[in-house]
Design goal:
It comes from Maribacter caenipelagi. This is Alpha/beta hydrolase family protein. InterPro entries: AB_hydrolase_fold (IPR029058), Carboxylesterase_BioH (IPR050228). It contains nine helices and 14 strands. It has about 350 residues and is α/β, with parallel strands linked by helices. It has one domain (about 5-30, about 65-350): 3-Layer(aba) Sandwich (Rossmann fold). The strands form four sheets. The chain has an eight-stranded mixed beta sheet with strand order 1-2-4-3-7-8-13-14. A two-stranded antiparallel sheet has the order 5-6. It has a two-stranded parallel ribbon with strand order 9-12. Strand 13, helix 8 and strand 14 form a beta-alpha-beta unit.
């Protein structure tokens, strides 16, 4: 017998036709092997006993990224590679918290091959070569504010998030910790290795992976375009053109400097950035809004710099497009299909959706 939650999820798909796939699967990219000196003895060391276990002569395969992919029938030439943000996994792009289709399926329906990433030391890529301590602190309300659903446990007026308690329950449960120290260079290397494996494609980032996406594009010419949802850090500027740090309540946002010869790579591909609602124009007392005020301000400076050097960068503030009430997760909001249409139109405009 189906539970109420199962019926609730299944019901959202009842009116849509099936998606035909010609291939799907998963694999890992990147990573390293950690080795311990000595000789492994299958008799002495072969019993699994955590209280008396030796690492002598043994190895650990870790620090890789995990990739799930689906190739639809009549697939378009360039796949979309989806990279999650901080504290998240590939679930960001899958079923929405309220049980509707996420970007994974919405773009399969548009015949794009899709690749979903769990970056190293996160989610399905949890095998780390370095230890860490995972906190069990109670912090749901902190993320509720940072992700701009509202304040405390009170939703913003007209927010594009379901008021069904089960949707919020699902949303909180998709947060996942790092299983090792966060290492940006490790993440960049793994995603670059993915593009080496699959060839040309379009990178779609969210939040913390936004800055890592720029850095990956500097490294790998197979990235033919970038769509970034609410990038919050690691904006890359040419040497001598780095803007001043932008202070905000609870912190400050600084940009990174790279040689002009490297920065020019970002002017050679189309880039689009999207930000949602509830981002103030002036400083406010709410830290959850403040950091996004700084990010949006930095993104304006960044796109202007890319375009000044001959690039093609577009900044879209969704409320200005008539899409109001979006959170930090536009791809999961109630109007995510309208958000997806904007991306699909951009891909078509830039010639990135050809078969």
């Amino acid at each position: 017998m189906l539970t109420m939650v199962q019926l609730w999820v299944i019901g959202t798909y009842a009116q849509k036709p099936p998606v035909t796939l010609v291939e799907q699967g998963s694999f890992t990219v990147g990573g390293s092997i950690k080795s311990s000196p000595g000789t492994f003895d299958p008799i002495t060391h072969g019993a699994f006993n955590p209280s008396n276990q030796s690492s002598e002569g043994q190895t650990l395969h870790g620090d890789h990224a995990t990739v799930f992919y689906q190739i639809p029938d009549s697939a378009k030439k360039l796949p979309l590679v989806f990279w999650h943000g901080y504290g998240q996994s590939m679930r960001t792009w899958q079923t929405t918290p309220d049980g509707r289709e996420g970007f994974q399926t919405l773009f399969l329906r548009r015949n794009f091959p899709i690749y979903l990433i769990d970056q190293p030391r996160r989610g399905l890529s949890g095998r780390s070569t370095e230890p860490t301590t995972i906190s069990a602190a109670t912090d749901d309300q902190l993320w509720f504010g940072i992700f701009r659903l509202g304040t405390g446990s009170t939703f913003y007026p007209d927010v594009q998030f379901s008021d069904d308690p089960e949707a919020l329950n699902q949303f909180f449960r998709q947060i996942t910790p790092d299983t090792g120290p966060l290492n940006i260079n490790l993440n960049i290397e793994a995603v670059s290795t993915l593009f080496d494996k699959i060839g040309p494609g379009v990178l779609v980032t969210h939040s913390h992976s936004g800055g890592q996406g720029w850095l990956t594009a500097l490294k790998n010419g197979n990235i033919k375009g970038i769509a970034s949802y609410e990038p919050g850090s690691n904006f890359v500027f040419p040497e001598g053109e780095v803007p001043e740090t932008i202070p905000y309540v609870g912190g400050a946002l600084s940009a990174r400097s790279v040689p002009m010869t490297e920065f020019k790579r970002l002017t050679e591909i189309p880039i689009v950035i999207y930000y949602g609602d509830y981002i103030p124009n002036e400083p406010v007392a709410h830290p959850g809004q403040e950091q996004w005020r700084a990010a949006l301000q930095m993104a304006k400076l960044w796109t202007a710099t890319v375009n000044k050097h001959g690039g093609d960068a577009t900044l879209v503030h969704l409320p200005e497009k008539g899409l109001k009430g979006n959170t930090h997760f536009p791809m999961s909001d109630l109007n995510n299909e309208k958000v997806a249409v904007l991306l699909a139109e951009w891909l078509k405009e830039k010639g990135l959706d050809k078969k």
